[in-house]
């Protein structure tokens, strides 16, 4: 007896000696029964419904065997051989594996040898008589059990699988057929459907599609093809839906949100003549929902009734102001609501991005002088800025003011009205924002309302240290905390509550070591440091055990203004500030 390899590329039938540690047991009772069969049996094939898979690696039995099986055989075949070859194959919606213990005790394995998709198949030429212990496994990870058919034949491999849930373009559509020719009238054609179903599309359709639908398509579109138009299939629903379209050449086209507002749309360029099968699906549920399908040569229709427009003739939503050059206070700040349902790209052009309301958020009537004009916005979301200038030109920005905040500077600005929109980069990120109008720079959101004042005398100590100082660590006892919120007074990355003046002012001349600044307290404390470079450095728990610590690698020479805060508001807490070149202080 020998095992025939079906193709050189596929992992066809493979032979290996069973290792001593095999955990598959040929003597265990088969899970799905057994049969006694003589050569020349009819009907041919013998087909057995079962569940493929298991939790045990098939490689435990045959070194080169992939996939997962159970410890007991799926089926036992007691075969009285004759002059025929013996074919064993498995058909399933998943990638199957066959593992067989032959009558002589040898192990045989196959992955895709049946030549039909991912179905396993094994051919025994001049087969032995005796018991064939057959395991039907799955290529994927163990534990799952998938419906499958085992086929036993002397004529060839079989791929029939009555358990299949794979979407089939050959099944009659649930809602009908559209027969269309190039340039068809009454464009778009519409069809009301119930989107959804039990079949998970991502298991089929080349893994390209998402959502859950029925096995049968919802619609057939018999299309004569076009040299002029593309074919558009889109859907509108109040729920998040997806579309899957199989073209006449078998190619899948799938989409989730391309037709706007969680509505899917598939554009097929240079459409072939023939039948297009359309499935309507739910993104993450098998519950069916009402939906309308649109078939068009003009575009995705039914989703947007009017073109996207930013209309500066509409009243501004947050008011207006008239400012002359040299105005005070500077910056002039306005609270607005960023975002909206108008696609700025469609309304203005390719230089702009984001989502805003159709009406401006604010109008600035500006009398220019010798200063530049700075417009910026701050927000917790990724904001954008769109401005229509006095000469009618559009100006847009996303992140120029730093930290995902937009900013526009007008050099030698014109006098006149500036219509201003504060948008969001994401469609669903609307939220509060602050518009800043300035002649000094991008401001307002970056300048704290109550800044920590490092020009004030330190509350507890002025310290001068040089590299190699002793004792190390240098300790300062103090009271941590205060009534100023560090986040609003220093930097958005800072946390806790501190006093307006620094607690310690350190003048430091570095040597060759790093500088460690930390604090120890029974309370959860924080550190806020303004370094010699003017930058803010903040930390909460960097020294461990709720103690903050900041490490300066290759520290600069100069003044370090240090605040020791408490993470939460309340009474001040006893604390020790530690300055070291050896590491964070823990006692």
UniProtKB/TrEMBL annotation:
Q: Which domain of life is it from?
A: Bacteria
Q: Which UniProt keywords apply?
A: Signal
- The residues forming the signal peptide are 1-22
Q: What is this protein called?
A: Peptidase domain protein
- What organism is recorded for this protein? Maricaulis maris
